[in-house]
Write a structure and sequence with these properties.
Strand 5 and strand 6 (about 145-165) form a beta hairpin. The protein has helices at about 1-30, 195; strands spanning about 30-45, 55-70, 75-90, 95-115, 120-135, 145-165, 170-185, 205-210, 215-225, 230-245, 250-265, 275. By secondary structure, it is mainly beta. A 10-stranded antiparallel beta barrel has the order 1-2-3-4-5-6-7-9-10-11.
Length: about 280
């Protein structure tokens, strides 16, 4: 009898420990994923290639993944953003063309301040931001392209508000990502890529960046709304990238209107996943 009682206690303890472990892991398994496509206006300026501004049309792809972590008692969420944009631009006289493309990946950890029964969330935290791309001018022969490679650490903030119009649920979000400290690759003024990579005559081509020479900001506004069993998302991206290094000025201003969908999932072991109620989404 005593042995049976001890075995019962062991079994009960094992069950409770597994249950507690599952509870601690449950929040980290809720994940929000969204995919957006957009089109908008582009303004590109590269003094390495031309003294003129070029404007045109841009297309953009944005993929977002967000889930809770175990940091600080489970009050910190992790957000991964992948953005790809490409633009076709012309100068003011419509006599020359310039192509630009950039891939951006950022990962932010946000501490979530939840207020008003989770209807309002304020998220703040650090961010890692990496960028790579190219700007190409068809007019130039010696130096037809400028490579873009830069990244670093920054700050990210987000405001999420859930509300209803009649009984129709809506979620609005504003997010701003601000780079603070980083590094950037750039040729020196008048220096060709042939001199850097073939002749080995490169100078100061990797430079420290901060707000004084790389004042950039990415802003995102989105609105989520359900249509039957699908959560749709529309949004606006204001992407301001600018720098002044090695006596070269550069900027790329983007204003894109986005549309796509949101998936709220509960991840199981392996690749299995099930739908997740909106009220428990990390977003």
């Amino acid at each position: 009898m005593k042995q049976k009682f001890i075995m019962l206690l062991i079994a009960l303890g094992s069950f409770l420990s597994v249950g507690a472990q599952e509870d601690s892991l449950r929040a980290t398994r809720y994940v929000m994923r969204s995919t957006l496509f957009g089109i908008g206006h582009s303004n590109v300026f590269e003094t390495y290639l031309s003294p003129l501004e070029y404007t045109g049309t841009e297309v953009r792809f944005l993929h977002e993944s967000m889930r809770m972590t175990r940091l600080l008692g489970g009050k910190v969420s992790g957000q991964s953003l992948i953005q790809v944009n490409a633009s076709y631009n012309k100068n003011i006289s419509q006599t020359a063309e310039m192509y630009a493309g950039l891939v951006n990946w950022s990962y932010a950890l946000h501490y979530q301040f939840r207020m008003n029964d989770d209807k309002l969330k304020i998220l703040v935290g650090p961010m890692l931001d990496l960028n790579g791309g190219v700007v190409y001018s068809r007019r130039n022969s010696n130096n037809p392209a400028q490579a873009k490679a830069y990244g670093g650490l920054g700050a990210s903030g987000m405001l999420i508000y859930k509300f209803h119009i009649a009984r129709y649920p809506l979620t609005v979000r504003y997010q701003a990502n601000l780079p603070l400290l980083g590094v950037m690759f750039s040729p020196e003024y008048g220096e060709s890529y042939y001199e850097i990579f073939s002749l080995g005559n490169g100078g100061r081509n990797v430079l420290f960046t901060s707000l004084h020479n790389n004042p950039s900001l990415r802003q995102i506004v989105t609105l989520d709304f359900p249509i039957r069993n699908v959560t749709m998302r529309v949004g606006y991206v204001c992407d301001i990238q600018q720098s002044k290094v090695n006596n070269l000025k550069s900027h790329a201003y983007s204003h894109d209107f986005m549309i796509g969908f949101v998936r709220n999932l509960y991840l199981l072991r392996g690749k299995n996943r099930i739908s997740m109620p909106l009220k428990v989404t990390p977003f």
